[in-house]
Amino acid sequence: MEESAVVKIGLCQTATVEWDVEGNFRRVLEDITTAAGQGAELIITPECVLNGYAGPGLSDWKTRFPATTEPLQGDYLSQVCERVKSLQVEVVFGFAECGESGTFHNTAVLIDRNGAIVWAYRKMHCRPFESAEHDGLFTPGDRFFVSDQTYSGGNLRVGAMICFDREIVESVRCLRGLNAEFIACPLATNTYPLTGASNSHGQKADNELITRARAAENEVFIAVVNHAGRFNGGSYIVGPLGETICQMGSGPEVRTVALPLGVTRSLHHDPLGWMAWGHRRPSDYAPYLGGSHERH
């Protein structure tokens, strides 16, 4: 791989409207097409982009939500796959999935340039208002995925997580354990400047700070893509040293960013032992991790 080899990442900060599946579908297809026109090879959409992440926080979401979900072979997703194939790009697409057993999942699929679904990641960590284990409708997933994808500059190990997954340290650690180099993170949130302010739920303004820490801890790129409209954008990419590479505004926008492919590989190789990953002692941590006593 040449030192100058890059992969172009497209961020689709789509303006979505809750429940407007047809309109959101049209807008996100336009944004994917725009990103491809900018030269993007791997394009990322927001979380649950088709229904505008309608549901949690809305009084009627349990009755209206099921009609806005899609199976993996659903009509809207099939049309997305066709568009991706025609554009000869790859897309991480976030949508609300209706599973085969009638369960619902918050899902991100990787669609390759042949229009095929490489993997379907189902959000593992759901807040109580989302999770079917509590007051919500989403059944959490139980598996992470990373695949080796080929772009014009070379190969890239690509994985995904979704929104709240970032706040669980094991999410990125597991993806890094699968040798991820780039992690797509579809998101739906209202972000705040890093001033220590809290929103109405008491969540501190730590959106980007958490992501930067996860990227640096695990020496990976992380691209976080939010909605515009009901949510206030602010999509960004952070690098494997925790640096912010790009930051978008609050309005609808499509932006393509070139990332150097060799950076994560050189950090992961680490012949001098400066990086933290190679000094972990997983067997020594085992007695402290994984027990049911950790859950409250």
Overall description:
With 296 residues, the protein is an alpha/beta fold. The chain has one domain (7-279): 4-Layer Sandwich (Nitrilase/N-carbamoyl-D-aminoacid amidohydrolase), CATH 3.60.110.10. It is 23% helix and 26% strand. It contains seven helices and 14 strands. It has helices at 21-37, 61-64, 75-87, 169-177, 207-218, 262-269, 282-285, and strands at residues 6-13, 15-16, 42-44, 90-98, 104-111, 117-122, 146-151, 154-160, 182-186, 221-225, 228-229, 236-238, 244-247, 253-260. Strands 6-5-4-3-1-14 form a six-stranded mixed beta sheet. Helix 1 (21-37) packs parallel to helix 3 (75-87) and helix 4 runs parallel beside helix 5. The longest helix is centred in the first third of the chain and has 17 residues, at 21-37. The termini are far apart. Mean pLDDT is 90; it is low at 193-198.
In short:
The protein is α/β, with parallel strands linked by helices.
**For this entry, what is the oligomeric state of its chains?**
single chain
- Note the total helix count: 7
Give the CATH superfamily.
Carbon-nitrogen hydrolase
Q: Which structural class is indicated by helix and strand composition?
A: alpha/beta
Biggest β-sheet strands, sense, barrel: 6 strands, mixed
The percentage helix is 10-25%
- CATH fold name, please? Nitrilase/N-carbamoyl-D-aminoacid amidohydrolase
Task: Give start-end ranges of low-pLDDT stretches.
Answer: 193-198
Strand tally is 14
Rounded radius of gyration (Å): 18 Å
